[in-house]
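Table S2 (continued). Query chain:
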Amino acid sequence: MIIRKEHALALIATRKDELEDHPIHQLSTNVEAEPFIELEFANLMRMERPLEYTLTYWGRALANIIKEMVDKNIIDHPSNWDERYRWIGSEILMMIETAIKNDDIPGELTLSELEKRGFIEERKIEKKGVFKVINKYAKDIYNIFINTHPKLIVNKELYEYIKNMPAGPTNSSRLPAGGRFPLILESMRLIAFSVPTSDIYNVTGLGQYIKEACKYIAPAFDILISEDIMLSVEKIVDYGVEELTDTEKEFLMACAYINGDGELLPAGENLLEAYRIWKEHEFKPVKTFNVDLIDIELLKGIKESWDKHKENPEILPTSDTLIDILLYRPAKEYKHLFNYYGRRIYQDIGYQRKEEIKKKFEDVKTVEELFKSFYEKGNRWREKMGDVVQESLYTLESFNLIHAEELNEKKVYYLTEFGNKVLEDVDKRGIRDIPSTSVKAITITNREFGSPNINWYEEAKDRLLIGVAEPTEAGKFYADLAYNIRRLPHITRFELKVLQTIPEKGFFISDVYSKFDETWQEEISYALNKLEARGYIDILQNEAIILTEAGKLIKRALSGTPEGFANPITPLAVRVLEALREVGTVYTKEHKIRVLPKNIKKAVKISGLDPVTFGKEMLILRASKLAGKSSVNEAGLMILEALDLLNE
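Corresponding output:
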């Protein structure tokens, strides 16, 4: 839905005609009709006959809002607007939506854009104070957007434009020259623009399938995509090609939607998927992924250990082996890890010694020397590196990149298919961290009108996930990974501390920073990345943070966890909980799973853990108040419920 000066004036003029008993607004030229056509695509106008238009129900509602806002001096009359001023566009609708999700609070990033459009008021929120929030006009316009069903018609000219335009996310200047085609595409919800300005655009979830269909369509007729054509394609799947008329068959074959046997070709398959999205308004959920520098080094270490194992069976990728690999590797190979190790040491000995740590890192030859210089007493340097390694191993398993199993009475780590693919990317494009918002810059486009904010876009470009005009091979890989991995709940002590500061809504990234000393900002950013990639929080384009349903469950389940746990919930513990659920009996009234002692051995086998590791994890679960001696309690059930939500 796009409303510029010409669209607002068209709505007002047609409304005026209705009030004066002229239900049809008559135009004299095709040029005059251009904004009416875009409003028709958005289902705000209806064409009765060529150059004759009436308002739809929702078009009338929007015209009334504009009139009321003008009468109350909330906005200027549209005749005074600049010709290209976007009063409503996909980016403004996103700003309104993110505010609605965040208790009506838009935040600093989008406040000024909403304010200048007349969509902000002050409101006192109990126990919080006075806030600038979106007003009823903003909500009414969003309601109109949600309830209108856009038209979808692609003629030969628009087909050529769609086929040739970059999919994005990319700069709006890369849209091909094409007159009003961008306005038409936005009216049909096939492209969306970035927050807080429309500098970046991308093809939407629906637009992606339309664009893919256009790659294969043979342009045999003037109209190539319409509701009737989509219905014909659906009819084949539901009832068989026999149900089509001869005219329908000839059309679909000529446009390469079906072959001579009535089977769907790639153009038909993509159009069918587009029709399902267009008709049912069902879009992929937005998921993301994160991998840090230490995670990548451990993946490399596991592969290196298995390669050496072929020549020396004594070498296995255990946690001790991986600690040695990290400690004794020359520091010059580790310059990219400086910030990570620095963070770990800052936490323990204080951020005030940052400069000393930086200088020390420049002087030492190995990571071992760095750790020894700060943790010499009681051989704590190796213990500290052990903490670093274990935390990352849990993270890697929680993201389905590695899998822990017993071999020769030792816990060893195997790379999964996904872990191997991450290493392939590193080999091709170099070592770099992949923040959650950089992946989200790509996956957000799966939504109805989702587009990244500009910071996410720049971050994705820096990490080689977005190229000149669309996601790179690496970007597509990490976006696919976000949807294909099986997540196991995991959270570190610090991540839990951050999670506990975040209410369900009404909070921003800046609010999280304000809850901690300013020296912790880097560590908080790292934690937020992990929390979002794990699926516990959702960072919106206006930099608001809201808890997901899984995040709410994790937060509640771990509210009683004692302070001393480095990892209050681990993927290994979740494997134990899953196994207990499989062999136990659920008692709904008691909110418990009870397990008969004879079934514990079966649970050990199902978990894939050795008996000793299984026993250790059971002790941790009991101490974390997630399980009893042979049962899973209510908090443990919440973890299992979160697990199911994360992998729906």
